[in-house]
Amino acid sequence: MPMRSFALASLLLLSVTGCLGRLTTGQPPVYFELSYERTAPQCTGARQGALRIWPFSASAPYDREEMIILKPSRKVRFSPHFRWIASPGAMIADKLTRDLAGSSPFAQVVAAANASAFGVQMSGHVHEFVWEDLGNENHQARLDVQISVWSEEPERHVLLQKHYRLASDRFRSGSAEQFAEVMSRLVAELSTRLREDLCSGELQVSSSRLQVDRSCRLLALCRAPGMNVSGRTTGPGSSSRSSD
């Protein structure tokens, strides 16, 4: 009898433990990535020089991998189950590195991990990367990124500094799959606009030095926010904000 009682008690304990395990173990997270096909614009003229792209920083709470929903009350909610494969800044920098390598004024485009010295650099800051709940079952994706391109040689000066603010149409669906699809389209649009700005004139890069053609057809270089008449500025962190 004692042995039988012990066996029954052991089976009961295992059963209770198994139930508790199923109750306390949450579902594994589901990861999403930005996915879109690379498209032109194609830059005209010879591609020269090299560009190094640094990982983009982000304002809180957009520096996390969790998907973020902005409620009508303006409260931020983090998804406990749906996540991005990396932070928004890292994903955007990765996509821009890929896209600019295929179409840009630069012969070589590399990520910051490359140890080679480059005279032209790019970085950015994510101000907003969110799926907004507008109420009445309406949702909208919003993306706000500031991008800076600067030259380190012969001395540091800003070549392009611009805010890119994009918003999707309104959608009735509020699913994670919808968010990933819509945000991918916004990042694709960001990439297209950036390449159009970089390709709108001629960049002449040689010996790690960037020169602008005398006609100054690249408006982003001629009129970069924060530049004085000589084209010099205090650096890529100027506070100027511009929009399309």
Mean pLDDT: 75
What general form does the structure show?
Answer: elongated
Termini gap: 83 Å
E-strand count: 11
The radius of gyration over CA amounts to 24 Å
Poorly predicted segments: 6-25, 202-244
| SS content category | alpha/beta
Largest sheet geometry: 9 strands, mixed
Helicity, as a percent range? 25-40%
Order of helices and strands: HEEEEEHEEEEHEEH
Number of helical segments with 4 or more residues: 4
Question: Outline of this structure?
Answer:
It contains four helices and eleven strands, in the order αβββββαββββαββα. The protein has helices at 2-24, 88-102, 176-199, 219-222, and strands at residues 30-32, 50-53, 57-58, 66-70, 76-84, 108-111, 120-135, 138-151, 157-167, 203-206, 209-212.
Protein model, in words:
The protein is an alpha/beta fold. It has four helices and eleven strands; from the N terminus they run αβββββαββββαββα. The strands form two sheets. Strands 1, 2, 3, 4, 5, 6, 7, 8 and 9 form a nine-stranded mixed beta sheet that branches. The longest helix is centred in the last third of the chain and has 24 residues, at 176-199. It starts with a helix and ends in a 22-residue tail after the last helix. Mean pLDDT is 75; it is low at 6-25 and 202-244.
Please give a handful of descriptors for the protein shown.
4 helices, elongated, nine-stranded mixed β-sheet, disordered C terminus, two-stranded antiparallel sheet, 244 residues, alpha/beta
